[in-house]
Amino acid sequence: MGAQHRWTAADVPDQTGRTAVVTGANSGIGFHTARTLALHGAHVVLAVRDMERGAFAAARIRAAVPAARLTLQRLDLASLTSVRDAAKELRDRFDRVDLLVNNAGVMWTDEGRTADGHETQFAVNHLGHFALTGLLLDALRAAPGARVVTISSYLHRLGRIAPDGPDSPRRYSRFRAYNQSKLANLMFALELHRRLGDTGADTLSVAAHPGLADTGLGRHIPSALRRIGPLFAPLFLQPAERGMLPGLRAATDPAVRGGEYYGPLGLTETKGHPGLVHTARRARDPESARRLWAASERATGTVYSF
């Protein structure tokens, strides 16, 4: 594939025989990812918080892809009990998982804590996926060439992991909390790649970000920003179906290597065709990554068995 090739969903190879778990598959980027994987033959698990909305999404996919093989799985990433239950049900149902797309997330929410006591954005975006991946690790390693794709954001560059921990008491900022969670997503993907490599596993850990996509993720945007948003949207915003392409490429392109990061190649990485993009230096700091990993294991009670 030439360096100038503009990768699209038409480049997805046959996915027949693969089991793919997509979190947040009922809407936005997750929905389009699930539909495209199903179109190319994968058995897709729609891991969703709201089963009614998940069933509606499954019906939409079947209307477009009558032969789609779909499974609904309840998963509330804000609840570690739900994550553990979902992982057990998936392990009982499937001998192996070929692809896990850690896509679901929340953005710019009001200050809040989950039932487990963790800041909401960090818990949903990072801790829930950290636990889910660890609990499915054996199922992933049972599939030759399996992949874990974790969706981050170009805003990870603005993120900082608080030295005294992400759940430390401090003045809340919805923007700072989101950026921190997205930096954690990327650091997790890169550290998982390193740890898998140390064991000789052929499971790939890859990261991606959608740029600025038109999805329901922005429903918590403050009203002042919502009023001016339409003035700038045409310049930077792309449809969710385009926003899914970096993650879809990370999940399916045979040329992808572990530890890579995909995003839109346009100006400021907000839109454009998917390709390799750069990570912030702090995302690649091994000592920070080890601290985050240890803190995540403590917070979730999930210890990876490499």
UniProtKB/TrEMBL annotation:
UniProt source species: Streptomyces jumonjinensis
SUPFAM superfamilies in the cross-refs: NAD(P)-binding Rossmann-fold domains
Gene3D superfamilies per UniProt: NAD(P)-binding Rossmann-like Domain (3.40.50.720)
Protein name as catalogued: SDR family NAD(P)-dependent oxidoreductase
Molecular function as annotated in GO: oxidoreductase activity
Keywords from the UniProt entry: Oxidoreductase
Alphabetized NCBIfam families for the sequence: PRK06197.1
InterPro entries listed in its UniProt record: NAD(P)-bd_dom_sf, SDR_fam
